[in-house]
């Protein structure tokens, strides 16, 4: 595996939305410190149903979605529509920006979504990549009611979407796979609802990690956040993602 780049694999237990967003930013900081830093692939879930706003969305617009009004709110670093995180699997891929090559940057979005589609096929879900932007849907509040190129579709329903952010000399891509419909976003249909087949999240993560390793030429080594990353994430959660100044900034 000499042609493979060493990388870290982090599989987190479910956490609140402030912490989940803070960890992704902390990883961007540490990964971006040096072109020789190890890339990080992270899988995580949410300890309670949480609404995340896209970076440019207006917080006042959440009133338009009554089902999620009682859910905690966090604003993402990335753009796009709001996402109700509940019965889903979330991932992030963080790469040192100076070490990016064609497979890491321009093709990363599509490569990852092809991996997601290939793994879902093994679970009996024939997902496809959307081939066009549907502008008439861009006004929808929820991300999974919009349609952008390379979104993952299953039986006409969007079940996977991602966004990228460049910051701290790093490139980060994170995204969600909707496993099941949530009562806090009943208009969004999940993979299990469509296929009728159960999904074991631990097995799904294992399959996705193996396929991502092959597709992105990463030699993934399981681990955890470093002590410094935990300290960084704690501070970022405190001063940014848990504050009204950040979440209510627009």
Q: Could you characterize what this model shows?
A:
- The chain is α/β, with parallel strands linked by helices.
- It has six helices and eleven strands.
- It has helices at 17-31, 108-121, 191-195, 201-216, 227-241, 244-247; strands spanning 5-11, 40-44, 50-53, 73-75, 83-85, 88-96, 128-129, 152-154, 157-167, 170-178, 218-223.
- Helix 1 packs across helix 5 and helix 2 packs across helix 4.
- The longest helix has 16 residues, at 201-216.
- It is globular, with a radius of gyration of 17 Å.
- It starts with a strand and ends with a helix.
- 42% of the residues are buried.
Strand content: 15-25%
Tell the overall outline: globular
Strand adjacency order, main sheet: 7-8-9-10-6-2-1-11
The helix/strand order is EHEEEEEHEEEEHHEHH
Report the count of strand segments: 11
Q: Low-confidence stretches at least 5 residues in length (pLDDT < 50)?
A: 100-104
Distance between the termini: 47 Å
Determine the fraction of residues in helical runs and give it as a percent range.
25-40%
Which class do the helix and strand fractions yield? alpha/beta
């Amino acid at each position: 595996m000499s042609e493979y780049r060493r990388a870290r694999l982090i599989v987190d237990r479910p956490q609140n939305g402030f912490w989940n967003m803070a960890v992704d930013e902390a990883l961007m900081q540490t990964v971006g410190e040096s072109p020789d830093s190890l890339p990080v692939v992270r899988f995580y879930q949410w300890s309670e149903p949480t609404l995340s706003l896209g970076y440019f969305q207006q917080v006042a617009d959440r009133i338009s979605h009554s089902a999620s009004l009682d859910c905690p709110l966090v604003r993402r670093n990335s753009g796009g529509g709001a996402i109700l995180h509940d019965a889903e699997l979330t991932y992030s891929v963080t790469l040192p920006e100076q070490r990016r090559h064609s497979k890491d940057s321009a093709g990363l979005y599509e490569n990852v979504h092809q991996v997601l589609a290939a793994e879902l096929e093994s679970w009996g879900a024939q997902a496809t990549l959307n081939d066009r932007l549907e502008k008439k849907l861009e006004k929808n509040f929820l991300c999974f009611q919009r349609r952008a190129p390379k979104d993952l579709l299953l039986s006409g329903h969007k079940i996977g979407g991602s966004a990228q952010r460049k910051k701290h000399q790093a490139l980060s891509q994170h995204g969600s796979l909707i496993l099941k419909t949530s009562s806090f976003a009943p208009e969004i249909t999940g993979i299990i609802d469509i296929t009728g087949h159960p999904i074991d999240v631990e097995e799904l993560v294992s399959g996705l990690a193996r396929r991502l390793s092959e597709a992105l030429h990463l030699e993934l080594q399981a681990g955890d956040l470093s002590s410094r990353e935990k300290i960084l994430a704690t501070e970022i959660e405190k001063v940014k993602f848990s504050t009204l100044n950040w979440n209510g900034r627009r």
